[in-house]
Design a protein that fits this description.
The complex is a heterodimer.
Chain A: H1 4-11, H2 18-23, E1 27-32, E2 41-46, E3 49-55, E4 61-65, E5 79-81, E6 84-86, E7 93-94, E8 100-102, E9 120-126, E10 129-133, H3 146-149, E11 154-162, H4 166-172, H5 178-193, E12 206-214, E13 217-224, H6 232-235, E14 238-241, E15 245-248, E16 255-265, E17 268-277, E18 293-296, H7 311-321, H8 338-355, H9 388-394, H10 403-413
Parallel strand pairs in A: 11-18
Antiparallel strand pairs in A: 1-10, 2-3, 3-4, 4-9, 5-6, 6-7, 7-8, 9-10, 11-17, 12-13, 13-14, 14-15, 15-16, 16-17
Helix pairs in contact in A: 9-10
Chain B: E1 17-23, E2 26-32, E3 39-44
Antiparallel strand pairs in B: 1-2, 2-3
The chains are: A alpha+beta, B mainly beta.
The complex binds FE2/S2 (inorganic) cluster (FES), fe (ii) ion (FE2) and zinc ion.
Chain lengths: 416, 59
């Protein structure tokens, strides 16, 4: 349990809030590159700000405030120019820095446009994604975490907009024992109800769990019943990359899985499941798998009920039923919730670092540190011991349009 | 938990943290003070347990 005011500090993401100021020190995905191939603009809401991402006719990307400062029409309907985006209503044009560079119906010698400026933020591409930075200058480097930067790789990205604050989703990633129940016993129960008797590796009991802060966040580890202390699950574990990514290991080598919880505003989160699969050496990546494959992950059925027969749907059911912003003033935390408490404390500490003018945890400014950041992840994860196909079909990846290709490819060549 | 055990600053401010959790019959409060950065746990003691000191050598 904690106080309402402390809960608010940890969940308000808008401009000028303590957490909002901390979160603005990191880069966030705002789109997949392929999304802007067939269109010029994409409406983006990030950290409580309404923005529009656009591609101009020179091929440059920009991210500016959605609302035209003239009389408020949406720039998401704008006209792309050689250098910037023009408002559809009266033709005012803005460049990527947010500066107004043309007001076609004002007198030719007017200096009015020099005094009109909207927000304009940095964007950068990596791993098929477009990232944005909304914080103060100088901007840190966009971290080249392994999943974004390894080559050659097949990359896929599932997405869902969830009507909840990002913190309760992140807290789930510091709660290792939920897997035993939600993805173990509950999953088995749901399957039983459907007439399929199953036993899954997830239901194995946790003997102990541990959390270790490291340079990019927190590494969490688990020891399951019957495992030895030198199992990957206990020896290596996997990290929560501060402040919004969970990186998970694999059942073999060569797959990278990020769950990114991108705060849209206080009560909405863009959940992105980003996977990179590295096939063995000498394997040609088929043409249709070369571009990032983007797909929606459904989590509600036609009656508005949660879809809970797959792993991520089970998590989503829990996050959403906790309420838009989980009420932490009446929760009853136990000993297995220490990871959650550690994450809250880390947020508070990092908020303070920012207020003291320091860089918060994981911010990178040295290019030598950023060539390729290999995150520690277990490569023989017990939970994935049932094999690539079984696991892939039990996660949200079952909705990926190229899932059969992935399974076929990795059945024949094996995952490196 | 109203005041920091280290510096005495108020702990019920928005940027400090007091999280209560339970371990068997014990209530524990993890505290982080934004005034002095002290962090630690305060335990509500249900019962005081003292172990006997080992006897040293003779007499
Ligand atoms: S038992 Fe954990 S939320 Fe219900
Ligand atoms: Fe989960
Ligand atoms: Zn103090």
């Amino acid at each position: 349990m904690m106080s309402q005011s402390q809960n608010e500090t940890l969940t308000r993401v808008g401009p000028g809030t303590p957490l909002g100021n901390l979160l603005r020190r990191y880069w966030y995905p705002v789109a997949a590159e392929v999304e802007l191939e067939k269109r010029w603009t994409k409406r983006v809401r990030l950290l409580g700000e309404d923005l529009v991402l656009y591609r101009d006719r020179s091929g440059n990307l920009g991210l500016i405030a959605e609302r035209c400062p003239h009389r408020g029409a949406s720039m998401a309907y704008g006209i792309p120019e050689e250098n910037g985006l023009r408002c559809p209503y009266h033709g005012w044009c803005f460049d990527a820095s947010g500066q107004c560079i043309d007001q076609p119906n004002e007198p030719a010698d007017s200096t009015f446009k020099h005094r009109v400026r909207i927000s304009g933020y940095r964007v950068q591409k990596l791993g098929g994604l477009i990232f944005a930075y909304l914080g103060p200058e100088p901007a840190p480097l966009l971290p080249r975490y392994d999943a974004f930067a390894v080559e050659p790789a097949i990359r896929v990205m599932g997405q869902a907009v969830l009507p909840v604050n990002f913190l309760q989703i992140m807290e789930n990633s510091l709660d290792p024992v939920h897997t035993e129940w939600l993805h173990g016993h509950y999953h088995e129960f749901i399957q039983q109800e459907l007439g399929r008797e199953t036993k899954v590796a997830f239901s194995r009991h946790h003997v102990k769990i541990a959390f270790d802060p490291f340079a990019y966040g927190i590494i969490k580890r688990r020891l399951l019943e019957g495992q030895s202390e030198d199992s990957d699950d206990w020896r290596v574990g996997h990290p929560v990359v501060f402040p919004y990514i969970l990186a998970v290991g694999s059942g073999g080598l060569g797959t990278y899985a990020f769950q990114m919880r991108i705060p849209i505003d206080d009560t909405h989160t863009w959940h992105v499941w980003y996977n990179a699969y590295v096939p063995g050496p000498g394997v040609e990546i088929p043409e249709k798998l070369q571009k990032l494959c983007v797909y929606d992950v459904p989590w509600q059925d036609e009656h508005g009920e949660f879809i809970t027969d797959y792993i991520d749907g089970q998590d989503i059911m829990c996050w959403v039923t906790q309420g838009a912003i989980a009420d932490r003033t009446d929760e009853r935390l136990g000993t297995t919730d220490k990871g959650i408490i550690l994450f809250r404390k880390m947020l508070m500490e990092q908020i303070q670092r920012v207020e003291q003018g320091l860089d918060p945890l994981g911010v990178i400014r040295d290019p030598a540190q950023n060539e390729l950041i290999s995150l520690p992840v277990e490569r023989k994860k017990h939970h994935f011991s049932e094999g690539f196909e079984s696991v892939t079909m039990r996660f949200q990846t079952r909705y990926c349009p190229v899932v059969r290709d992935l399974i076929d490819l990795f059945r024949t060549v094996g995952v490196k | 938990m109203r005041f920091c055990p280290h510096c005495g600053a108020r702990m019920d401010v928005p940027q400090s943290l007091v999280v209560e959790y339970w371990q068997a019959e014990l209530a524990l409060f993890l505290c982080y003070c934004s005034a002095c950065q002290w962090q630690g746990e305060i335990v509500n003691q249900v019962r005081v347990v003292v172990s006997e000191l080992e006897e040293e050598g003779e007499s």
